[in-house]
Amino acid sequence: MSSVLERLSTAVIAGDAENSVKLVHRALDKGMDPKDILDNGLVPGMDEVGIRFRRGDMFVPEVLMSADTMSAGLDILRPLLAAAGTQLIGTVVLGTVKGDLHDIGKNLVGMMAEGAGFEVIDIGFNVPPERFIDAIKEHQPNIIGMSAMLTTTMRAMGHTIRAIEEAGLRDKVKIIVGGAPVDAEFATRITADGYGSNAPSAVELCKSLASAS
Amino acid sequence: MQVKRNNYYIHASPVFEVLTEDEIEAIYFSALRVLYETGVRVYDKEGVAVAHAGGAIVEDVQSDSALVKIPPWMVDKALATLPRKVTVHGPDRKYRMELYKNQIYYGCGSDTPYTIDPYTHERRRATYKDVKNFAKLAQALPNIDFHMSLGIVQDVSVGTYDRWQYLAMLESTSKPINLTAVDLEGVKDLLEMAYIRLGGEEEWKKGPIFSLYIEPVSPLSHSEEVIQKLLFATDHHIPFVYTPCPLAGATSPTTLAGTAVQALTESLFGIVLSQLRRPGAQLIIGGLMSNMDMLTTVYSYGSPEMALLSAAYTQITKWLGVPMYETAGCSDAKLYDEQAAMEATINIATAALSGGNMIHDVGYLEQGLTSSPEMMVAADEIIDMVKRIMRGIPVNDTTKALDVIAEIGPGGHFLEHDHTYSHFKDEIWRPKLVSREGWADWQASGAKTHGQRVHERVIEILEAETEPLLDEAMYKELRHVCEMADARHKDEELDMSMFV
Q: What residues of A are in the B interface, CB distance below 8 Å?
C-alpha cells in the first residue's frame, strides 16, 4: 500500500481533484506537516506532469486538470503554511495590456503558474498601466506578467513598464512579457526582465525569477 | 473564376462536402439558440443601442459592456436584406471579385509580425519595403486575385501602420485589397486614401476598391473597436469581412461542430447589427477556424481540422446565401519547405473543392506569425494545378474524339493530328515551377530543387522593372494622409525603438 503522499502525487498526475482534497485532509489528520505534504505530495506530482508534458505524453487539457488538482490541495494548505511562516514560491500578477481583449494565452500561463504553486492574481484584459501599478501596491507580487496579441497593443507593454518606473516601483517587481507577436528582442528593447515563448516556458521563467529575488 | 458549372454540367467538377443539409440546419438552428439564450458580450454602447432598438434583449449592463441576446426573428429579418453577392474591385477595375456561390478567389493573409527575407532567408520583423515587395508579387502572380499585406509595417510608427501599409500596397498592386485598421480613425483615413486613389467618393460608389477585415474576439465578444468599425463600414458602403478566429479546444469547443456553432453565432451578430444599421450592408463571413495544438498551444494553420472546418463552414455559408471567407495556402512550417508545400496543397485543394469564395492566407507560415515570398509564389502554382482539376473533364463529341480514334486506328499515333494541335493547350496543364525533365536534362539545367526554382522566381519578379502605379502627385497626396496621422499620434510613441 503506497503512502498518502505517493497517492497524492498520483492524484495530481491523474487530475483527480476530489481525491487530492481528501488525501490532503487525510495527511493533515495523520498529523503530517503542511510543508511536507506540499513538497513530497503535491510538488512531485506536478514535476512528473511537467516531465510527461515535455515528452509529449501529456497534453495541455490534462496538464491543466493536474494544475487544478494541485491548486485544490494547495488551497487547503496555504493558510496553514502562512500561519507557520512558510514562504511559498511567490505571487504573480497577470494581465492583458490596454487595448487588447485577447486573454487565452494569459489564462493559460495563470493556470500553469498556479499548478507550479504560485499565487496568481489575474487582473483581466484591457488593463491600463494604472491598474498594474495598483496591483503591485496591493498584492506586492514578485512578478508582473503582461500579455498582448496585437503588434499595436505590444506598445502598451513599453508604456506600462515606463509607468511602473515613474511610480517608483520598478525595483519591487520582475516584469515578464509574452504573446504571439512578442519576442525576446522586444522584451529587451522595452527593458522587461524576461520573455516566455509559451505558457510552460513563462512558468519556468517565473520560477527562476522568483527564486532569484 | 467559375469553377463549378451548373445545369447540364452539374457533376463536371469534383466537390468536397462534409455536412449533410440536416447537419447544416442543426448547426444553424443551434447558433440561433446560442445567440438568443447565451447571447454575446458587446463592449460598445452605440452597438448595444442599435441592437436594443432593433428588438434585442440587453442584460447584465456593466460600465464597459452589456450582454446582448438576439431573438431568432431578428436574424430572419437581417438575412432577408443581406446581399447574397459581394463585389470588390481593384484600383484597376479589370481586377474584381464577385463573391457568391461557387466563385473562388485566392489571396494573401494580413499582418504577420515577421517575414522571411527574400534574399537572406532571415526571419525578421516586417517593414514597408517588405509589404511593397509582397504587393509586387501579388500583382505578378496570376492566381492571386486579391491582396492582404503579408506583413505589419514596423519601421514606421506602429500606431498608424495601417495607412503606411495601404500606401505600400497601392504602390505595387492594383488588385482588390482586404485591409486591416488600427481603429475607427484608421478606417476613416484608409477610406480617404481610397477616394484619392480613385479620384473621389463618386468613383467609390461605382464599386469599392477594398474590403475591411474586422475580427470579433472568441468566445462571443465584440469589442468597441470592432463594433465601431462595423458601423462605420456599414454607413460608408465598405464591404467587410466579419470573421472570428475561434481556436477549437481553447476559445471554442474542441469538437468541430461546436466550433462551427460558436463561429456562426459570432458572425450572425455582425449580420444582424449591420442590417439593422443599413439594410443591404455587404458582409463576408467565415474566417479562420482551427484547433489549438495541445502540446505547443499554437493556433494551427496547417491542420486537417482547419481544412475540414473551413469546408464545413463553406457549406453553411452557401446554405445561408452569404459569401465565405476561407483559409488556405498556409502552414505551420517555419520556412517554405516540404511541410509547407504539403500543408498548403491540402488546404488549397480542399478550399477549391468546397468552393469557399474569398480564400485568404496564401503565404502564411508559422501559424500566421511569418510571411514568406517563396510560400506565396509556390502556392500560386499549387492553386493553378488545383484549378485544372476543378475544370474537370468535359465530355462531348469533340472531346470523346471518336472520329479521330477511327481515323488513326490501331497502331498509329496522335502527335501530328489537328485534334491534338487544337486541344492540347486547354486539356493539358503546364507547370512553370514543377520539374518534369528527365534526370540528364535536370542535371544539365543545374540540378535545382523545387525550393531553389521557387526562390529564383521570387527574385525574378521582385527585380523586374514595372511601371509605377501611382503618379508623383497622387503618391504625395496619399503620403500626406499617413504623415498627418503620424502627427496626430506622435505622443503615443515612446522615445525608444520598440520593434526595429
A: 53, 56, 59-61, 101-102, 104-105, 108, 126, 151-152, 154-155, 158-159, 162, 180-181, 186, 189-190, 198-199
Q: CA nearest B42 in A: which residue?
A: A101
CA B355/CA B100 separation, integer angstroms: 10
Q: Which domain holds residue B192?
A: 1-392+431-500
B133 pLDDT exceeds 70? yes
Check B217 against A101: CB less than 8 A apart: yes
Tally of domains within chain B: 1
Give phi and psi for B42, each to the nearest 5: -120, 120
Amino acid letter, residue A196: G
B312 and B19 Cβ atoms separated by less than 8 Å: yes
Question: What is the homologous superfamily of the domain A91-212 according to CATH?
Answer: Cobalamin-binding domain (3.40.50.280)
CB contact under 8 A, A101 and B43: yes
Chain A environment of B217 (Cβ under 8 Å):
101-102
Q: For residues B163 and B184, what is the distance between their CA atoms, to the nearest angstrom?
A: 12
Successive 10-residue mean pLDDT values, chain A, 213 residues = 88 96 96 94 93 93 94 93 87 96 92 91 96 97 96 94 97 96 95 94 94 76
Interface with chain B: mutation pick from A49, A55, A104, highest number of B CBs within 10 Å: A104
What average pLDDT does the structure give for chain B?
A: 95
How many A-B residue pairs are in contact by the CB < 8 A criterion?
66
Checking if the pLDDT of B12 tops 80, the result is: no
Output the pTM of the full model. Answer: 0.93
CATH number for the domain that contains residue B387 = 3.20.20.480
Report, as an integer, the average pLDDT of B67-92.
98
Q: Contact B176/B170 with Cβ under 8 angstroms?
A: no
Mean pLDDT of B242-259: 96
Distance of alpha carbon B462 from alpha carbon B127, whole angstroms? 15
- Is the pLDDT assigned to residue B495 strictly greater than 80? no
Closest by CA position to A143, among listed A122, A168, A115: A122
* Cβ distance of A61 and B249 shorter than 8 Å: yes
The answer to whether the CB atoms of B494 and A155 lie below 8 A apart is: yes
Return the residue matching grid coordinates 447589427.
B273
CATH superfamily of A4-83: Methionine synthase domain (1.10.1240.10)
**Cβ contact, residue pair A198, B297, below 8 Å:** yes
ipTM of the complex: 0.89
User: Does the pLDDT at position B58 exceed 80?
Assistant: yes
Contact A151 B247 (CB under 8 A): no
| pLDDT band at residue B493 under the 50/70/90 scheme | confident
* DSSP letter assigned to residue B37: I
